[in-house]
Design goal:
Protein name: LacI family DNA-binding transcriptional regulator
GO molecular function: DNA-binding transcription factor activity; transcription cis-regulatory region binding
Mean pLDDT: 88
Helix content: 40-55%
Pfam family, one: Peripla_BP_3
Strand content: 15-25%
Keywords: DNA-binding, Repressor, Transcription, Transcription regulation
Oligomer: single chain
Low-confidence stretches: none
CATH class of the largest domain: Alpha Beta
Length: about 325
């Protein structure tokens, strides 16, 4: 015999399928049923060898202790060098500490109908450079608990998030360069306008203005960076390059390659800093910059989501930024 359905139990017990559902679900809604009817349903279920679906049973409860994780990359990273790996490791560690299970939504599509699947869980974490506005708006309107990992400004700032304080950390790097005597700086960043990119540039511009630095912001995907470009900047008096860190590391890789093509030494001929950390496996001196507290971001995001799923006595802060510790590195030279 195939899998026993509630319809089969209803037929044997001589009751409606709705009655079977009520009995097997524990009658949480308080429907009036005779004890004789309840026992008849249970006896029929036992006779047929009915085994309840554990997923359906959990979803029928008010809470199922499942937290979702939805990312818009094609697949979850398995390489510890991947930028998302420590975030997901932090998510897993905190979920385990809180006694929660995780359900992974692996589709890279941002279509609202796919995002609605996250409601299988009690709440969901979102991770990605850009927000799928329509899908997230639907979840917020329905009162479904969500937390984005990374600061978000979309939807009027209504998206709960845990992010990194890129503004302060980026400003500190520029201030460090100014104290080392640098006055002409090129800042290289990717073309798109994700909040993390905008925050870094805000910090760079504010600190450069405060220190009186000559700053030029170059938006590039890295394809136009080469040895002659670097040589031209140095001939123009530039003494430091600052590079944005992104998921792909495209601009850093292109800058590092261009420095090699130009035969330029770091920090002997030019200083170099990255707003974050360089891609894993970068050879040479330790690059100056700052740490993004990725594991801590994952853990803090889980705690915030859990507080939204099961509200306590106080109102949680829906927008939190974590400090990025500076990395002194070896690539900022002090000028005479």
């Amino acid at each position: 015999m195939g899998k026993v359905r509630q319809a089969d139990i209803a037929r044997v017990a001589g009751v409606s399928q709705a009655t079977v559902s009520v009995v097997l679900g524990g009658n949480r809604t308080g429907v009036r049923l005779s004890e004789r009817t309840r026992l008849r349903v249970l006896e029929a279920a036992e006779q047929l060898g009915y085994v309840p679906d554990p997923v359906s049973s959990r979803l029928a409860a008010t809470r199922n202790n499942l937290l979702g994780v939805y990312t818009f990359t094609p697949a979850f990273p398995v390489d510890v060098a991947d930028a998302y790996y420590p975030i997901l490791a932090g998510v897993e560690a905190e979920a385990a500490a809180l006694g929660k299970d995780l359900i992974m939504f692996t589709a890279s599509s941002a279509a609202p109908d796919r995002i609605r699947r996250t409601r299988l869980a009690d709440g969901c974490l979102f991770l990605g450079r850009h927000v799928p506005v329509d899908g997230i708006a639907d979840l917020l309107a329905a009162g479904f608990p969500i937390v984005y990992i990374g600061r978000r400004t979309e939807l009027g700032g209504r998206i709960p998030h845990v992010g990194a304080d890129y503004v302060s950390a980026s400003a500190e790097v520029i201030t460090r360069l100014a104290r080392a005597g640098h006055t002409r700086v090129r800042y290289l960043r990717e073309p798109d306008d994700a909040p993390s990119s905008g925050d870094r540039e805000r910090g760079v511009r504010a600190a450069a203005a405060a220190a009186g630095l000559s700053l030029v912001v170059v938006r590039t995907d890295g394809a136009d960076l080469d040895g002659p470009s670097v040589r031209c900047w140095l001939d123009d008096g530039v003494t430091a390059l600052v590079v944005e860190e992104t998921d792909t590391g495209a601009v850093f890789h292109a800058t590092w390659r261009a420095l090699g093509e130009a035969g330029v030494s770091v920090p002997g001929d030019v200083s170099l800093a990255v707003l974050g950390r360089p891609p894993a496996g970068t050879a040479g001196p330790v690059i100056s910059g700052f740490e993004v507290p990725r594991r801590a971001l994952g853990r803090a995001a889980v705690r915030l989501l859990a507080s939204l799923v099961e509200p306590g006595s106080g109102e949680p802060s829906l927008h939190r930024l974590l400090t990025c510790p500076p990395v002194a590195g070896e690539t900022i030279a002090t000028l005479a």
